[in-house]
Amino acid sequence: MNEPVFRADARAAFAVAYPEVPHRLTHDLRGHPLLTLDALAELAEALPANSREYNRADLPVGLNGIVPPDNGLGIGETIRRIGETGSWAALKNIEQVPAYRELLLSLLEELRPAIEARTGAMLRPQGFVFITSPDGVTPYHFDPEHNILLHLAGAKTMTLFPQGDARYAPDETHESYHTGGGRELFWTDDLARGGTEWKLKPGEALYVPVMAPHYVRNGPASAISLSITWRSEWSFEEADARAFNRVLRGIGLAPRAPGRWPARNGAKAAGWRVLRRLPGFA
Question: Which of 7, 95, 108, 176 has a 20 to 30 Å separation from 190 between CA atoms?
Fold first, then answer.
């Protein structure tokens, strides 16, 4: 039987902090043959085009409407030469490839008891790999999943901001995202004082709560990280309540933001689930 990637102390720390407290974990995934640069370049070339994103990595913390410039290379070359291409690459939904799905599910299975004790059934498992050139930046944004970022190579610093605080991610941005808009957040330098830096080296991981705003600065060497993510009925309820709030805002109301865990947002979520099934509703 294979040894667990998350040791007992890491699983215990996760069980205490999940789902709302960011925290550092350790892992034993370094050197995995599916996560070398050559293996990831082959994975990238096998994935459909809509499951890979890559561009220049010499970006500001806040894109603020700027479209990241293309790096002029193919995805395989971008990854194989990541130390010199000045790029950022994201491989999305790696579970589309059977070997990576097996890896993702095996990692999540180690955490399933702690996850389901707090937020119920573990839904929609997904995996993402990030490959970044030296000093590259992943701009300020949020993500809708429960997320553990396992760091594998190089060094990076994720600056994390409080989830559910409209100073860092306005309610209107959340509402737009959950009805088809982007997840990028507008950055101003006065936000910096609210961030907490988490410096990660290989063998460390960071749990990132649902919708916690963050940006990432890479260190002086190229880096590889794996995100293992999942959803819960609670996270889907919050998302649907946000979408319903946009409808309310559109008719001139000023709706209250959904509550964070363990609050439930069932009534608004149910309202959105009814509306989106109506013929002609957009």
Answer: 176
Domain 8-231 has CATH 2.60.120.10: no
Q: Tokens 């964070």 appear where?
A: 260
Q: Which of these, 136, 116, 104, 85, lies nearest to 226 by C-alpha position?
A: 104
pTM of the prediction?
Answer: 0.96
The pLDDT score that the predictor gives to residue 103 is 98
Domain spans of the chain, in order of start: 8-231, 236-275
**What is the structure's pLDDT at 1?**
45
Encoded tokens for 128: 């993402």
pLDDT of the residue at 282: 62
**What is the distance between the alpha carbons of residues 163 and 210, in angstroms, rounded to a whole number?**
7
**Residue ranges in the chain modelled with pLDDT below 50:** 1
| Confidence (pLDDT) at 228 | 98
pLDDT per residue over 99-129, tens digit each? 999 999 999 999 999 999 999 999 999 999 9
Q: How far apart are CA 212 and CA 206, in angstroms?
A: 12
For the beta carbon of residue 125, count every other beta carbon within 10 angstroms.
18
